[in-house]
Amino acid sequence: MGNCLGSSTRIDATHSTSEASKFPSGSLAPSSISVPSHSSKSSVHSLPTPRSEAEILSSPNVKPFSFNELRNATRNFRPDSLLGEGGFGYVFKGWIDENTLAAARPGSGLVIAVKKLKPEGFQGHKEWLTEVNYLGQLHHSNLVKLIGYCSEGDNRLLVYEFMPKGSLENHLFRRGPQPLTWATRIKVAIGAAKGLSFLHEAKHQVIYRDFKASNILLDGEFNAKLSDFGLAKAGPTGDKTHVSTQVIGTQGYAAPEYVATGRLTTKSDVYSFGVVLLELLSGRRAVEEEKVGVEQNLVDWAKPYLGDKRRLFRIMDTKLEGQYPKKAAYTAATIALQCLSREPKLRPNMTTVLSQLEELQSPKTASRGENRTSFDPVYMSPLKHRNTARNVTPSASPLPSYLRSRVK
Ligand SMILES: Nc1ncnc2c1ncn2[C@@H]1O[C@H](COP(=O)(O)OP(=O)(O)OP(=O)(O)O)[C@@H](O)[C@H]1O
Ligand SMILES: [Mg+2]
Protein backbone atom coordinates (compact mmCIF):
# COMPACT_ATOMS: atom_id res chain seq x y z
CA MET A 1 0.00 0.00 0.00
CA GLY A 2 2.43 2.65 1.04
CA ASN A 3 6.07 3.25 0.85
CA CYS A 4 8.44 2.31 3.53
CA LEU A 5 11.29 3.90 5.33
CA GLY A 6 14.63 2.43 6.02
CA SER A 7 16.19 1.62 9.30
CA SER A 8 18.95 4.15 8.97
CA THR A 9 17.10 7.29 9.97
CA ARG A 10 19.50 9.60 11.75
CA ILE A 11 18.23 12.76 13.26
CA ASP A 12 20.88 14.87 14.81
CA ALA A 13 19.47 16.26 18.01
CA THR A 14 22.08 19.01 17.97
CA HIS A 15 20.48 20.57 14.90
CA SER A 16 20.28 24.22 15.84
CA THR A 17 18.45 27.34 14.88
CA SER A 18 21.45 28.94 13.35
CA GLU A 19 22.32 25.89 11.30
CA ALA A 20 18.80 25.52 10.01
CA SER A 21 18.36 29.12 9.01
CA LYS A 22 21.57 29.17 6.99
CA PHE A 23 19.98 27.09 4.29
CA PRO A 24 16.91 28.32 2.48
CA SER A 25 14.31 25.82 1.38
CA GLY A 26 15.31 23.81 -1.62
CA SER A 27 18.98 24.62 -1.30
CA LEU A 28 21.42 21.78 -1.75
CA ALA A 29 23.28 22.63 1.39
CA PRO A 30 24.04 19.69 3.65
CA SER A 31 21.64 19.04 6.47
CA SER A 32 22.30 17.58 9.88
CA ILE A 33 19.13 15.59 9.30
CA SER A 34 19.48 12.60 7.09
CA VAL A 35 16.75 10.10 6.52
CA PRO A 36 16.39 7.17 4.18
CA SER A 37 14.89 7.43 0.76
CA HIS A 38 12.15 5.14 -0.42
CA SER A 39 11.17 3.16 -3.40
CA SER A 40 8.01 4.62 -4.84
CA LYS A 41 6.38 2.10 -7.14
CA SER A 42 7.82 -1.33 -6.74
CA SER A 43 6.56 -3.60 -4.01
CA VAL A 44 10.16 -4.76 -3.61
CA HIS A 45 11.77 -2.01 -1.62
CA SER A 46 15.25 -0.88 -2.41
CA LEU A 47 17.78 -0.45 0.34
CA PRO A 48 17.27 2.87 2.08
CA THR A 49 19.77 5.63 1.54
CA PRO A 50 20.06 8.75 3.67
CA ARG A 51 18.13 11.74 2.37
CA SER A 52 19.19 15.31 2.77
CA GLU A 53 16.85 18.11 3.70
CA ALA A 54 16.76 19.25 0.09
CA GLU A 55 15.83 15.75 -1.08
CA ILE A 56 13.03 15.50 1.46
CA LEU A 57 11.61 18.85 0.41
CA SER A 58 11.76 18.03 -3.28
CA SER A 59 9.57 14.94 -2.87
CA PRO A 60 7.06 14.70 -5.75
CA ASN A 61 4.35 13.73 -3.24
CA VAL A 62 4.24 17.05 -1.42
CA LYS A 63 3.79 20.53 -2.83
CA PRO A 64 5.90 23.46 -1.70
CA PHE A 65 3.59 26.42 -0.94
CA SER A 66 4.62 30.06 -0.62
CA PHE A 67 3.68 31.81 2.61
CA ASN A 68 1.46 34.17 0.64
CA GLU A 69 -0.49 31.29 -0.90
CA LEU A 70 -1.25 29.88 2.55
CA ARG A 71 -2.10 33.32 3.89
CA ASN A 72 -4.67 33.66 1.10
CA ALA A 73 -5.96 30.12 1.56
CA THR A 74 -6.65 30.74 5.28
CA ARG A 75 -7.98 34.30 4.94
CA ASN A 76 -4.83 35.68 6.55
CA PHE A 77 -4.86 33.09 9.34
CA ARG A 78 -8.05 34.64 10.64
CA PRO A 79 -8.90 33.67 14.23
CA ASP A 80 -12.28 32.36 13.11
CA SER A 81 -10.45 29.88 10.84
CA LEU A 82 -8.63 28.44 13.85
CA LEU A 83 -9.14 24.69 14.22
CA GLY A 84 -6.92 24.10 17.22
CA GLU A 85 -3.66 24.74 18.99
CA GLY A 86 -0.89 22.32 19.90
CA GLY A 87 2.56 22.47 21.40
CA PHE A 88 4.16 23.55 18.14
CA GLY A 89 1.65 26.07 16.87
CA TYR A 90 -1.82 26.80 15.53
CA VAL A 91 -3.92 24.91 12.98
CA PHE A 92 -6.14 26.88 10.56
CA LYS A 93 -8.83 25.87 8.08
CA GLY A 94 -8.26 26.86 4.47
CA TRP A 95 -9.30 26.25 0.87
CA ILE A 96 -7.30 25.42 -2.25
CA ASP A 97 -8.19 24.59 -5.83
CA GLU A 98 -8.45 20.81 -6.25
CA ASN A 99 -6.46 20.76 -9.49
CA THR A 100 -3.95 23.58 -9.30
CA LEU A 101 -3.65 23.56 -5.47
CA ALA A 102 -3.65 27.37 -5.63
CA ALA A 103 -5.49 29.31 -2.90
CA ALA A 104 -9.25 29.24 -3.50
CA ARG A 105 -12.24 31.24 -2.31
CA PRO A 106 -13.40 30.18 1.17
CA GLY A 107 -16.03 27.50 0.80
CA SER A 108 -14.88 26.35 -2.65
CA GLY A 109 -12.45 23.66 -3.73
CA LEU A 110 -10.54 21.40 -1.39
CA VAL A 111 -10.66 22.03 2.36
CA ILE A 112 -7.27 21.92 4.06
CA ALA A 113 -5.79 22.24 7.53
CA VAL A 114 -2.72 24.46 7.76
CA LYS A 115 -0.42 24.01 10.73
CA LYS A 116 1.64 27.13 11.35
CA LEU A 117 4.57 26.44 13.60
CA LYS A 118 5.48 29.04 16.18
CA PRO A 119 8.52 30.68 14.65
CA GLU A 120 10.35 31.34 17.94
CA GLY A 121 13.83 29.91 17.93
CA PHE A 122 13.20 27.40 15.15
CA GLN A 123 12.53 24.81 17.83
CA GLY A 124 10.17 22.83 15.67
CA HIS A 125 12.31 22.68 12.54
CA LYS A 126 13.53 19.15 13.14
CA GLU A 127 10.02 17.85 13.82
CA TRP A 128 8.67 19.79 10.83
CA LEU A 129 11.20 18.16 8.53
CA THR A 130 10.65 14.70 10.03
CA GLU A 131 6.92 15.15 9.38
CA VAL A 132 7.50 16.09 5.73
CA ASN A 133 9.86 13.16 5.36
CA TYR A 134 7.55 10.51 6.81
CA LEU A 135 4.20 11.72 5.53
CA GLY A 136 5.76 12.50 2.17
CA GLN A 137 6.48 8.81 1.80
CA LEU A 138 3.97 6.89 3.86
CA HIS A 139 0.51 6.59 2.38
CA HIS A 140 -2.30 4.69 4.04
CA SER A 141 -5.99 5.31 4.60
CA ASN A 142 -5.37 5.51 8.35
CA LEU A 143 -2.59 8.10 8.15
CA VAL A 144 -3.48 11.74 7.57
CA LYS A 145 -2.51 12.96 4.12
CA LEU A 146 0.15 15.66 3.89
CA ILE A 147 -0.57 17.83 0.87
CA GLY A 148 2.39 20.15 1.16
CA TYR A 149 4.54 22.44 3.25
CA CYS A 150 5.93 25.96 3.35
CA SER A 151 9.44 26.99 4.27
CA GLU A 152 9.99 30.68 3.84
CA GLY A 153 12.32 32.67 6.08
CA ASP A 154 11.53 31.60 9.62
CA ASN A 155 8.08 30.34 8.69
CA ARG A 156 7.43 26.60 8.76
CA LEU A 157 3.96 25.36 7.83
CA LEU A 158 2.37 22.03 6.96
CA VAL A 159 -0.70 21.53 4.78
CA TYR A 160 -2.93 18.53 5.49
CA GLU A 161 -6.20 17.14 4.27
CA PHE A 162 -8.96 18.57 6.47
CA MET A 163 -10.44 16.14 8.97
CA PRO A 164 -14.03 17.29 9.55
CA LYS A 165 -14.56 15.71 12.97
CA GLY A 166 -11.28 17.00 14.44
CA SER A 167 -9.38 14.98 17.00
CA LEU A 168 -10.47 12.08 19.21
CA GLU A 169 -9.43 14.20 22.18
CA ASN A 170 -12.13 16.76 21.36
CA HIS A 171 -14.82 14.09 21.20
CA LEU A 172 -13.84 12.24 24.35
CA PHE A 173 -13.02 15.07 26.69
CA ARG A 174 -14.43 18.38 25.52
CA ARG A 175 -17.91 19.62 26.20
CA GLY A 176 -20.04 20.12 23.14
CA PRO A 177 -19.88 17.22 20.74
CA GLN A 178 -22.31 14.41 21.47
CA PRO A 179 -20.74 11.52 23.34
CA LEU A 180 -19.25 8.86 21.11
CA THR A 181 -21.30 5.65 21.01
CA TRP A 182 -19.75 2.29 21.76
CA ALA A 183 -19.77 1.32 18.08
CA THR A 184 -17.98 4.53 17.13
CA ARG A 185 -15.37 4.06 19.85
CA ILE A 186 -14.55 0.59 18.54
CA LYS A 187 -14.46 1.92 14.98
CA VAL A 188 -11.97 4.60 16.03
CA ALA A 189 -9.82 2.07 17.93
CA ILE A 190 -9.76 -0.19 14.86
CA GLY A 191 -8.81 2.66 12.50
CA ALA A 192 -6.00 3.79 14.78
CA ALA A 193 -4.80 0.18 15.21
CA LYS A 194 -4.69 -0.19 11.42
CA GLY A 195 -2.53 2.93 11.14
CA LEU A 196 -0.12 1.71 13.83
CA SER A 197 0.13 -1.84 12.52
CA PHE A 198 0.83 -0.50 9.04
CA LEU A 199 3.81 1.42 10.47
CA HIS A 200 5.04 -1.51 12.53
CA GLU A 201 4.66 -4.10 9.78
CA ALA A 202 6.29 -2.04 7.05
CA LYS A 203 9.46 -3.64 5.72
CA HIS A 204 11.39 -0.75 7.20
CA GLN A 205 9.56 -0.46 10.45
CA VAL A 206 8.46 2.91 11.83
CA ILE A 207 7.97 3.64 15.53
CA TYR A 208 5.33 6.35 15.79
CA ARG A 209 6.22 7.53 19.31
CA ASP A 210 3.42 10.07 19.75
CA PHE A 211 0.27 7.96 19.94
CA LYS A 212 -2.34 9.95 21.88
CA ALA A 213 -5.95 11.06 21.54
CA SER A 214 -5.09 14.50 20.12
CA ASN A 215 -3.09 12.91 17.29
CA ILE A 216 -5.95 10.67 16.18
CA LEU A 217 -7.96 12.70 13.68
CA LEU A 218 -11.42 11.76 12.45
CA ASP A 219 -13.01 12.13 9.04
CA GLY A 220 -16.72 12.70 8.44
CA GLU A 221 -17.49 9.00 9.07
CA PHE A 222 -15.25 8.69 12.15
CA ASN A 223 -12.51 6.91 10.25
CA ALA A 224 -9.37 7.45 12.32
CA LYS A 225 -6.13 8.78 10.84
CA LEU A 226 -2.84 9.25 12.65
CA SER A 227 -1.24 12.67 12.43
CA ASP A 228 1.99 14.23 13.71
CA PHE A 229 5.01 12.25 12.64
CA GLY A 230 7.44 14.82 14.00
CA LEU A 231 8.68 12.37 16.63
CA ALA A 232 8.57 9.21 14.52
CA LYS A 233 11.66 7.04 14.26
CA ALA A 234 12.66 4.22 12.01
CA GLY A 235 13.28 0.78 13.52
CA PRO A 236 14.97 -1.57 14.18
CA THR A 237 13.39 -2.16 17.54
CA GLY A 238 15.50 -1.69 20.58
CA ASP A 239 16.69 1.72 19.48
CA LYS A 240 17.87 3.80 22.38
CA THR A 241 16.76 7.38 22.27
CA HIS A 242 17.58 10.07 24.77
CA VAL A 243 14.59 10.81 26.92
CA SER A 244 13.63 14.31 25.97
CA THR A 245 10.97 16.86 26.74
CA GLN A 246 8.84 15.08 24.16
CA VAL A 247 8.25 12.27 26.62
CA ILE A 248 6.81 14.91 28.94
CA GLY A 249 4.67 16.05 26.01
CA THR A 250 3.14 12.61 25.87
CA GLN A 251 2.76 12.36 29.62
CA GLY A 252 0.52 9.51 30.63
CA TYR A 253 0.88 7.79 27.25
CA ALA A 254 4.59 6.97 27.24
CA ALA A 255 5.61 3.41 28.10
CA PRO A 256 7.34 3.04 31.49
CA GLU A 257 10.58 1.65 29.98
CA TYR A 258 10.77 4.60 27.61
CA VAL A 259 10.32 7.11 30.43
CA ALA A 260 12.86 5.32 32.62
CA THR A 261 15.58 4.47 30.13
CA GLY A 262 14.74 6.00 26.77
CA ARG A 263 14.54 2.51 25.32
CA LEU A 264 12.19 2.66 22.37
CA THR A 265 10.52 -0.24 20.53
CA THR A 266 7.28 -0.77 18.63
CA LYS A 267 6.01 -2.23 21.91
CA SER A 268 6.25 1.30 23.36
CA ASP A 269 3.63 2.31 20.78
CA VAL A 270 1.52 -0.68 21.84
CA TYR A 271 1.58 0.61 25.43
CA SER A 272 0.39 4.04 24.25
CA PHE A 273 -2.35 2.30 22.28
CA GLY A 274 -3.46 0.61 25.52
CA VAL A 275 -3.71 4.02 27.19
CA VAL A 276 -5.88 5.39 24.36
CA LEU A 277 -8.07 2.27 24.47
CA LEU A 278 -8.52 2.92 28.17
CA GLU A 279 -9.49 6.53 27.41
CA LEU A 280 -12.07 5.25 24.94
CA LEU A 281 -13.55 2.89 27.53
CA SER A 282 -13.50 5.27 30.48
CA GLY A 283 -13.89 8.71 28.87
CA ARG A 284 -11.09 9.87 31.17
CA ARG A 285 -7.80 11.51 30.23
CA ALA A 286 -4.50 9.65 30.66
CA VAL A 287 -3.55 12.19 33.29
CA GLU A 288 -6.02 14.32 35.25
CA GLU A 289 -4.07 16.63 37.50
CA GLU A 290 -7.12 18.04 39.22
CA LYS A 291 -7.91 14.59 40.64
CA VAL A 292 -6.21 13.31 43.79
CA GLY A 293 -4.16 10.21 44.54
CA VAL A 294 -4.30 7.18 42.27
CA GLU A 295 -7.11 8.71 40.21
CA GLN A 296 -4.65 11.19 38.69
CA ASN A 297 -3.16 8.50 36.51
CA LEU A 298 -5.68 6.62 34.39
CA VAL A 299 -3.59 3.44 34.05
CA ASP A 300 -2.87 3.16 37.78
CA TRP A 301 -6.50 3.79 38.63
CA ALA A 302 -8.15 1.57 36.03
CA LYS A 303 -5.80 -1.43 35.86
CA PRO A 304 -7.27 -3.35 38.82
CA TYR A 305 -10.73 -3.27 37.18
CA LEU A 306 -9.74 -4.36 33.68
CA GLY A 307 -9.50 -8.08 34.35
CA ASP A 308 -12.57 -8.17 36.56
CA LYS A 309 -15.81 -8.80 34.68
CA ARG A 310 -18.05 -7.81 37.56
CA ARG A 311 -16.32 -4.57 38.49
CA LEU A 312 -15.44 -3.35 35.00
CA PHE A 313 -18.55 -1.15 34.84
CA ARG A 314 -16.97 1.08 37.50
CA ILE A 315 -14.43 2.45 35.08
CA MET A 316 -16.70 2.62 32.01
CA ASP A 317 -17.57 6.08 30.67
CA THR A 318 -20.82 7.20 32.28
CA LYS A 319 -21.56 9.13 29.07
CA LEU A 320 -22.25 5.75 27.45
CA GLU A 321 -25.22 5.48 29.82
CA GLY A 322 -24.68 1.73 29.99
CA GLN A 323 -25.25 1.39 26.24
CA TYR A 324 -22.51 -1.10 25.41
CA PRO A 325 -22.27 -4.88 25.03
CA LYS A 326 -20.83 -6.13 28.28
CA LYS A 327 -18.87 -9.02 26.82
CA ALA A 328 -17.27 -6.84 24.15
CA ALA A 329 -16.37 -4.25 26.78
CA TYR A 330 -14.68 -6.94 28.83
CA THR A 331 -12.75 -8.18 25.79
CA ALA A 332 -11.65 -4.62 24.96
CA ALA A 333 -10.56 -4.15 28.59
CA THR A 334 -8.54 -7.37 28.39
CA ILE A 335 -6.81 -6.14 25.23
CA ALA A 336 -6.00 -2.85 26.97
CA LEU A 337 -4.60 -4.74 29.97
CA GLN A 338 -2.28 -6.78 27.74
CA CYS A 339 -1.09 -3.65 25.93
CA LEU A 340 -0.36 -2.04 29.30
CA SER A 341 1.94 -4.83 30.53
CA ARG A 342 4.96 -3.30 32.20
CA GLU A 343 7.16 -5.85 30.48
CA PRO A 344 7.28 -4.91 26.76
CA LYS A 345 7.67 -8.53 25.67
CA LEU A 346 4.32 -9.42 27.24
CA ARG A 347 2.50 -6.83 25.13
CA PRO A 348 0.83 -8.15 21.96
CA ASN A 349 1.85 -6.78 18.58
CA MET A 350 -0.49 -4.41 16.76
CA THR A 351 -1.59 -7.04 14.23
CA THR A 352 -2.91 -9.21 17.05
CA VAL A 353 -4.56 -6.23 18.72
CA LEU A 354 -6.19 -5.27 15.43
CA SER A 355 -7.67 -8.70 14.76
CA GLN A 356 -8.99 -8.93 18.34
CA LEU A 357 -10.65 -5.54 17.98
CA GLU A 358 -12.14 -6.46 14.62
CA GLU A 359 -13.75 -9.46 16.29
CA LEU A 360 -15.68 -7.01 18.45
CA GLN A 361 -17.38 -5.67 15.34
CA SER A 362 -18.81 -9.02 14.34
CA PRO A 363 -22.60 -8.84 14.76
CA LYS A 364 -22.57 -11.65 17.31
CA THR A 365 -20.09 -10.03 19.69
CA ALA A 366 -21.32 -6.50 19.09
CA SER A 367 -24.86 -7.27 20.19
CA ARG A 368 -24.49 -9.96 22.83
CA GLY A 369 -25.44 -8.76 26.31
CA GLU A 370 -26.12 -5.29 25.03
CA ASN A 371 -28.21 -3.20 27.30
CA ARG A 372 -30.10 -1.23 24.70
CA THR A 373 -33.31 0.66 25.22
CA SER A 374 -35.90 1.95 22.80
CA PHE A 375 -34.02 5.12 21.86
CA ASP A 376 -31.15 5.46 19.45
CA PRO A 377 -28.06 5.71 21.65
CA VAL A 378 -26.04 7.37 18.90
CA TYR A 379 -27.99 10.57 19.22
CA MET A 380 -28.77 10.51 22.89
CA SER A 381 -26.81 12.83 25.08
CA PRO A 382 -27.26 13.09 28.82
CA LEU A 383 -27.01 16.86 28.45
CA LYS A 384 -28.78 18.07 25.35
CA HIS A 385 -29.60 17.41 21.70
CA ARG A 386 -32.40 15.08 22.70
CA ASN A 387 -34.55 16.34 19.86
CA THR A 388 -31.94 16.08 17.15
CA ALA A 389 -32.50 12.37 16.57
CA ARG A 390 -35.63 12.98 14.57
CA ASN A 391 -33.71 15.22 12.16
CA VAL A 392 -31.16 12.59 11.33
CA THR A 393 -31.58 10.16 8.50
CA PRO A 394 -30.68 6.54 9.19
CA SER A 395 -27.89 6.71 6.63
CA ALA A 396 -26.20 9.44 8.65
CA SER A 397 -25.72 7.12 11.60
CA PRO A 398 -22.13 6.18 12.34
CA LEU A 399 -23.37 2.82 13.61
CA PRO A 400 -22.80 -0.18 11.36
CA SER A 401 -25.94 -1.01 9.42
CA TYR A 402 -26.63 -4.19 11.37
CA LEU A 403 -26.79 -2.14 14.56
CA ARG A 404 -28.77 0.67 13.01
CA SER A 405 -31.67 -1.60 12.26
CA ARG A 406 -31.60 -3.02 15.76
CA VAL A 407 -31.85 0.24 17.64
CA LYS A 408 -34.69 1.96 15.80
N1 LIG B 1 -5.85 17.86 9.49
C1 LIG B 1 -6.63 18.41 10.44
N2 LIG B 1 -7.95 18.60 10.21
C2 LIG B 1 -8.75 19.13 11.16
N3 LIG B 1 -8.32 19.53 12.37
C3 LIG B 1 -7.02 19.38 12.65
C4 LIG B 1 -6.10 18.82 11.70
N4 LIG B 1 -4.87 18.78 12.29
C5 LIG B 1 -5.02 19.28 13.51
N5 LIG B 1 -6.30 19.66 13.76
C6 LIG B 1 -6.85 20.25 14.99
O1 LIG B 1 -5.87 21.06 15.59
C7 LIG B 1 -5.61 20.62 16.93
C8 LIG B 1 -4.15 20.88 17.26
O2 LIG B 1 -3.34 19.95 16.57
P1 LIG B 1 -1.79 19.84 16.87
O3 LIG B 1 -1.30 18.61 16.21
O4 LIG B 1 -1.13 21.13 16.52
O5 LIG B 1 -1.68 19.72 18.44
P2 LIG B 1 -1.98 18.54 19.44
O6 LIG B 1 -1.95 17.23 18.74
O7 LIG B 1 -3.25 18.89 20.18
O8 LIG B 1 -0.78 18.63 20.45
P3 LIG B 1 0.75 18.30 20.15
O9 LIG B 1 1.38 19.59 19.80
O10 LIG B 1 1.24 17.75 21.41
O11 LIG B 1 0.78 17.33 18.99
C9 LIG B 1 -6.02 19.15 16.93
O12 LIG B 1 -6.36 18.70 18.22
C10 LIG B 1 -7.23 19.16 16.00
O13 LIG B 1 -8.37 19.54 16.70
MG1 LIG C 1 -1.02 16.70 17.18
TrEMBL record:
The entry's keywords: ATP-binding, Cell membrane, Kinase, Membrane, Nucleotide-binding, Plant defense, Serine/threonine-protein kinase, Transferase
GO cellular component terms given for this protein: plasma membrane
EC number(s) recorded for this UniProt protein: 2.7.11.1
Stretches with biased composition (Polar residues): 1-20, 389-398
Biological process terms in GO annotation: defense response
GO molecular function, one term: ATP binding
Binding site for ATP: 116
Catalytic class of the enzyme: transferase
Region ranges (Disordered): 1-55, 357-408
Compartment(s) of residence: Cell membrane
SUPFAM superfamilies, alphabetized: Protein kinase-like (PK-like)
Primary subcellular site in the record, as a coarse category: membrane
Sequence ranges of Low complexity compositional bias: 24-50
Ranges of residues in domain Protein kinase: 77-360
InterPro entries: Kinase-like_dom_sf (IPR011009), Plant_Ser_Thr_Prot_Kinase (IPR050823), Prot_kinase_dom (IPR000719), Protein_kinase_ATP_BS (IPR017441), Ser-Thr/Tyr_kinase_cat_dom (IPR001245), Ser/Thr_kinase_AS (IPR008271)
Family listed: Belongs to the protein kinase superfamily.
Stated name of the protein: non-specific serine/threonine protein kinase
